[in-house]
Inverse folding.
C-alpha cells in the first residue's frame, strides 16, 4: 500500500488540500468594497439661520408659511395646493408621459441584463447535442471481398457542462456593477417622475399667471381707451393741447401691444402642458387654473442636509454610478489573476444494429495572463481614475442640490416680502381709487382723474398677481428640491418595480 496520512492516502490528501485552497480562493473578492459616502456634516443650507416663518399678507396667496424641519413630504405633494385641476394634470402626466415609458424601459433593460449575466456566471453552463445520420459502407471500395452491409443509422448524443470558478471575484464584481447600473436607472426613473410633476405644476401656475395678466391688461387697455376718448373730447372743446392726445394714444398702443405676447406665452404654456400629459396640442384639453383658486401650503418641509442626500433621486443616482465605478475597479483587478474553468462531457454513440459505447471526459483549464504589454494594469488604472471621476461627480451633484434648496428657501422669504410690498401698494391704489370715486360722484374731480386712479390700481394688481404666482412656483420648487416624497408612495400606485428599500 502507498503512503498514508491519517486515514487518507497521500494522493487523496493532496487533492483535498487543493480543493480546500480553491474553496478558500473562491471566497476572495479583489477590489474596494463600496460604502455610501458620508452625508455632509452641516445643519443648515444658508450661511445665516433660516427664519421659521415667512411674512404674512392679506389674501389666499399671502398666508404666512412655516418652515418645518420635521415635516414629512407626502408622495402626492402637489395636492397640498388643493386644486383638483392641478391634481388631474399631474396624474395624467404620470400616467401618459412617453418620457416615463422610456425611463421605465431603460430600467427593465438594466434588470434583465443583471438576470442574464447572473445566469451565465452563477450557475454552470449546460448544453446538449444530438445528431443522427443515415450511412452505408461500400466494402468493395476498400478492396474487401465481402458483401457490403445494409444502410444503417448512426446516432450520437452528448451533454457538456462547464463552470468558471470565480476565484478572485471577477464575476461577483461584474454582477455588482450591473446591479448598480440597475439601481441608477431606478433613481433616474424616480427623478423623471419628480421632474415631470414639477414641470406640470410650474407650467400650470404660469398659465394661471398669464391668464390673470391678460385679463388685467385688457381692463387696463379699456380704461386707457376711455381716457383717450375723454382727452379728445376736451381737446375738441379747446380745454387741452393736442400733444396730450398723442401721449395718451401712445400709452394705449403700448398696452395693446403687450397683449399679443402674453397671449402667445399663454398658448405656448398650454402646448407645453399638452406634451407633458402625453397628448398633442391639437387633441389635448387643458383645464384653466385660476390663481385665486390655488391654496398656498402654510407648512413647508425643510429636511436636514444629512437626510437630503438620501431623499434626492439625482443624488442617489450619482451614488449608484459611484458604486458601479467601484465594482469596475474590482473587475479590472481580478483580470490580473488566473481564470479557471471546469468542464465535463458525457455522451454516447450507436448504430441501428449496435448500442455503441459511452464517452465521458472531465478537465480543468487555467489561464494566467503572462504578458499583455501593460494593458491589464492600464485597464486597472483607468478603472481607478473612473472611480475618482464618479466620486467628484457625486460631490458636484450634492453641492448643486444644496444650492437649489438654499436658493429656494431664500426665494420663499423674499417672495413673501415682495408680495407684502406689492399688496400694500395695491391696497393704497385701491384706497385712492375709492376716494376718487366718491369725489367724482360728488363732482369734485373729472372722469379723467378717476380713470387714471383706476389705471394705477390695475397696474398694481398685475404686479401683485405676478408676486403671488412666484410664491406658488417657489413653494412647489421646494418640494421638488427636497426629493418629492417618493418614499411615501404606496406600492399600488408605484409605476415601477421597487428595487431598493425606502430612505426612511
Amino acid at each position: 500500500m502507498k503512503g498514508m496520512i491519517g486515514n487518507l492516502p497521500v494522493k487523496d490528501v493532496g487533492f483535498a488540500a487543493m480543493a480546500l485552497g480553491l474553496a478558500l480562493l473562491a471566497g476572495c473578492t479583489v477590489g474596494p468594497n463600496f460604502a455610501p459616502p458620508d452625508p455632509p456634516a452641516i445643519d443648515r443650507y444658508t450661511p445665516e439661520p433660516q427664519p421659521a416663518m415667512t411674512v404674512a399678507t392679506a389674501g389666499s396667496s399671502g398666508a404666512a408659511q412655516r418652515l418645518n424641519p420635521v415635516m414629512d413630504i407626502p408622495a402626492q405633494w402637489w395636492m397640498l395646493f388643493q386644486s383638483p385641476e392641478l391634481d388631474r394634470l399631474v396624474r395624467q402626466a404620470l400616467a401618459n408621459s412617453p418620457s416615463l415609458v422610456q425611463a421605465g424601459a431603460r430600467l427593465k433593460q438594466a434588470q434583465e441584463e443583471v438576470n442574464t449575466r447572473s445566469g451565465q456566471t452563477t450557475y454552470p453552463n449546460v448544453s446538449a447535442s444530438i445528431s443522427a445520420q443515415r450511412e452505408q459502407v461500400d466494402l468493395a471500395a476498400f478492396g474487401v471481398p465481402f458483401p457490403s452491409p445494409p444502410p444503417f443509422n448512426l446516432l450520437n448524443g452528448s451533454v457538456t457542462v462547464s463552470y468558471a470558478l470565480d476565484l478572485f471575484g471577477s464575476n461577483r464584481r461584474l454582477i455588482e456593477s450591473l446591479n448598480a447600473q440597475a439601481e441608477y436607472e431606478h433613481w433616474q426613473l424616480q427623478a423623471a417622475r419628480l421632474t415631470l410633476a414639477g414641470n406640470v405644476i410650474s407650467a400650470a401656475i404660469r398659465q394661471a399667471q398669464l391668464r390673470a395678466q391678460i385679463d388685467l391688461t385688457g381692463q387696463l387697455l379699456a380704461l386707457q381707451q376711455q381716457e383717450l376718448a375723454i382727452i379728445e373730447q376736451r381737446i375738441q372743446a379747446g380745454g387741452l393741447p393736442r400733444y396730450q392726445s398723442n401721449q395718451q394714444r401712445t400709452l394705449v398702443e403700448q398696452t395693446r401691444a403687450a397683449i399679443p405676447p402674453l397671449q402667445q406665452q399663454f398658448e405656448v404654456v398650454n402646448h407645453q402642458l399638452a406634451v407633458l400629459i402625453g397628448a398633442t396640442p391639437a387633441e389635448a384639453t387643458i383645464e384653466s387654473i385660476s390663481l385665486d383658486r390655488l391654496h398656498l401650503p402654510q407648512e413647508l418641509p425643510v429636511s436636514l442636509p444629512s437626510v437630503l442626500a438620501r431623499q434626492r433621486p439625482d443624488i442617489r443616482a450619482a451614488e449608484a454610478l459611484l458604486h458601479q465605478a467601484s465594482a469596475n475597479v474590482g473587475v479590472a483587478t481580478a483580470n490580473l489573476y488566473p481564470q479557471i474553468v471546469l468542464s465535463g462531457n458525457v455522451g454516447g454513440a450507436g448504430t441501428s444494429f449496435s448500442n455503441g459505447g459511452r464517452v465521458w471526459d472531465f478537465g480543468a483549464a487555467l489561464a494566467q495572463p503572462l504578458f499583455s504589454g501593460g494593458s491589464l494594469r492600464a485597464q486597472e488604472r483607468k478603472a481607478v481614475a473612473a472611480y475618482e471621476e464618479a466620486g467628484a461627480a457625486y460631490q458636484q451633484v450634492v453641492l448643486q442640490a444644496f444650492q437649489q434648496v438654499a436658493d429656494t428657501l431664500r426665494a420663499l422669504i423674499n417672495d413673501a416680502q415682495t408680495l407684502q410690498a406689492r399688496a400694500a401698494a395695491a391696497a393704497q391704489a385701491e384706497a385712492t381709487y375709492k376716494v376718487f370715486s366718491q369725489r367724482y360722484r360728488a363732482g369734485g374731480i373729472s372722469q379723467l382723474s378717476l380713470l387714471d386712479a383706476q389705471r394705477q390700481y390695475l397696474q398694481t394688481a398685475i404686479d401683485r398677481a405676478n408676486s403671488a404666482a412666484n410664491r406658488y412656483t417657489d413653494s412647489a420648487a421646494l418640494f421638488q428640491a427636497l426629493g418629492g416624497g417618493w418614499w411615501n408612495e404606496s406600492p399600488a400606485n408605484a409605476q415601477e418595480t421597487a428595487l431598493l428599500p425606502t430612505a426612511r
